[in-house]
Amino acid sequence: MYQNLFEQYRLNDSITLNNRFLMAPLTRCMADADLVPTDAMLAYYARRAEAGLIISEATIIRPDGQGYPNTPGLFTQAQIAGWRRVTDAVHEKGGKIFAQLWHTGRVAHPHFFNGEHVLAPSAVGVEGTVPRMRELSYQTPKAASKAEIAELVRDYAKAAENAIEAGFDGVEIHGANGYLIDQFLHYDSNRREDEYGQTPENMSRFALEVVDATIAAIGADRTALRLSPGAYFNMSADPRDRQVFDYLLAELGCRRLAYLHEGMFDDSMRFDFLDGRVSDYMRRYYQGNLVGVGGYSPETAAEAIAAGRFDLIAIGRPFIANPDYIAKVRSGESLQDYSDEMLATLD
Ligand code: FNR
Ligand code: 8K6
């Protein structure tokens, strides 16, 4: 069944995947107090190594990128060594794994890094409190200076180098879901009046600088990007955002990334200003490898791939509920339904 999903897929000259299933990046908040991956995390990822590619849970590039408890990092030697054990275990089982590189921007909280402020494109805060730590209210961020922006770009590239040192096959830059890079890409959160704001070209500048610095550090064939053109999480949409993404996607088309990944929880959502689904919008404006995600079953994913709507499918919640998701789909065994209670343990 679903034969197209089990075909090998050649991402580029360096990387060929065993099948078209990606394990979506899934924050689990289970790293240790030093944000180092644990033995339980090693076992969790190794159990899912049959995926064509695992994308790690979002992993912070530096301390002030942290917005949730116990999210792993890639900025200390101990974190690199911890991830090395995870990547070795996945490779031993024949799998591949990318690190998702994360800075939460205005969704960060100084509680986690004993800091004074959080950095964002502009001093525009998010409403509300930190999930799982409701006593912590979000703060109004500090608008990053140009020197701070340059430092952030360098820190993404450094984290990418650290990821390669840790044995990852590549990195997916987290440019989605209302976090730092996405905050530059939407009018709701980017009110800058310098060369990082106000026009599609300026608003895309930070994202492209991060992408280009990462490519320079580890190569385009090992660099991927996740984007949310439809602001739907930690953010409000503005119809003008469309022009920013039209411009950005055209620019990305020239860069031969490993893949581009839509950041969505539910890809059946339709956005007027994108003329429909996010995946369809991205396919129209981007010709490289495209990853669909958000509420897909093996059936609907196989159909979408057969119809050419995207090339690869990322699976999130069903992979939490079914460590042996790939084997079950291959054999036609029924899948266990996901429930939020499953987030309490790392099975
Ligand atoms: C997520 N998602 C997510 N996305 C991301 O880019 N980085 C992350 O760390 C996380 N973390 C995360 C945790 C949990 C518990 C959930 C449920 C989701 C989004 C995820 O990658 C995916 O886009 C959605 O889960 C939709 O896919 P499914 O679950 O419908 O297959
Ligand atoms: C991008 C997500 C990072 C989340 C970290 C916290 C983990 C808890 C996730 C709960 C998932 C619920 C998803 C519901 C979001 C719907 C958005 C429209």
TrEMBL record:
Residues 5-333 form the NADH:flavin oxidoreductase/NADH oxidase N-terminal domain. Gene3D superfamilies: Aldolase class I. InterPro entries: Aldolase_TIM (IPR013785), OxRdtase_FMN_N (IPR001155), Oye-like (IPR045247). It comes from the Bacteria. This is 2,4-dienoyl-CoA reductase-like NADH-dependent reductase (Old Yellow Enzyme family). It comes from Shewanella chilikensis.
